[in-house]
Amino acid sequence: MREMLTGGDLDVLTGDYLAELTMLILGRDRLKDPGGGYARTFLRQLEDCLGLAHERDVKIVSNAGGLNPAGLADSVRASADRLGIPVRVAHVEGDDLAAAFPGSLAAHAYLGGFGIVACLRAGADIVVTGRVTDAALVTGPAAAHFGWQQTDHDRLAGAVVAGHVLECGAQATGGNYAFFRDGDVRRPGFPLAELHEDGSCVITKHPGTGGFVDVGTVTAQLLYETAGARYAGPDVTARLDTVRLGQDGPDRVRIEGVRGQAPPPTLKVGLNRLGGFRGEVVFVLTGLDIEAKAALVREQMEPALGKAADVRWELVRTDRPDAPSEETASALLRLVVRDSDQEVVGRALSGAAVELALASYPGFHVLAPPGKGSPYGVFEDVYVPHGAVDHVAVLHDGRRVPVPPAHDTAVLDEVPEPPLPQPLPPGPTRHAPLGLVAGARSGDKGGNANVGVWARTDDAWRWLAHELTAERLRELLPESRELPVTRHVLPNLRALNFVVEGILGAGVAARHRFDPQAKALGEWLRSRHLDIPEALL
Q1: Which of 40, 142, 401, 438 has CA atoms 20 to 30 A from the CA of 491?
Q2: 492 closest CA partner among 214, 162, 240, 236
Q3: What is the β-pairing status of strands 266-286 and 365-366?
Q4: Contact at 8 Å (CB) between 6 and 190?
Q5: Which pLDDT tens digit goes with each residue over 246-266?
């Protein structure tokens, strides 16, 4: 926060503190402390930077209110009073639908930006919200500044795209970027958007900060955790297939041409609940006979696992023959057990593993002592009509202003697949990694993963669009072979976006797989070898 306030000019500083997993964490926090449920890190940052923001007349808009935006707003006022800084604090509420979903730890609708608009137009300096969409942190300030209305779909869609690029911070300035060696990303600066009245924008960063902004870094973030041509939200449905990107100078990328449509008639609601308890033991297998050692310990552990609802074994072959170190001579055998009874995954599992310490395979040891079993969460999304929420802007003077839902809505229909470019002419090929000619970024949405893949040149796009079908992706990523995979084509971005349904089980908090948020799924794909035209290499 301090870096953004001191590094250059700003009108509004936004902060996205919420993710699916964060809502579960905040839900557990609120169980311990009914006055909690918000991101305390935001409050600590603000106490350090509130004076700077006030001096520079920078508005602050954040969803750090989490499950308790009113509580955070009160805490911000108390901090400001203690520091002697006159600020007007407002908040947005109405997203909490826990009463409508009994048994959930947290149930929150994704609200749009017009509650933020009401707060800012009434003169708020700081606006904190609960579960709004990530992009609402940008659409709200933009609509307040330019006077946009709910029917200004194209302008709102442009702001949604800008918000989506900004929401994950340094991912738009070289962080987590496939071609990270294109610049110095040891300490990337944070991105900012110069928004224009027509909805277009320029993505850039403060001068002198690390990282870099180019068409590739912005493309990667545009594909992150999205799916097809339509990016639906409570204010507008942005058409990602209309986005046009252009380099506008060093560390400047212009985004224009974004078209918008009326939002869908329903709001997404994220449900978090406790799914049960989880225990884990990682056995280290060293040297010879790795598979036989794994089979032995599995047989020895079986009697202790009979009562468990879900048992998963995974042998990770990190070992090498004739290895120069013990660590590189070792493989990992991972056991994960889930059950509604903590005892089944706790002491029973721990005891069985510890008792084998002197009676199993040669070289027996585990990475860490088995624990008592930890609770895990389950995420799912459902949809409710706009009228099911009481979206309210609570102004700095205490007035409560109802925020009406969108005037126009439209049911999402399928976008016809656009025509593919002409394929490359036949020529010699070389068996090589996909990542030599394509970038990728992947992430999670509940139990699904998305993998966005883009080409850096027109010729590479001509090849990629025909080569990387859904069936080909299943071949390259065997974990997806039995799962539904949908491919979306975005020619303006020279990109394909794949949705792999169910690969993450019940979501990140359930820790269904080795990479529970699919963050590295795209990098695994880029490492896979296939026949690539030599002209592209």
Answers
A1: 142
A2: 240
A3: antiparallel
A4: no
A5: 999 999 999 999 999 999 999
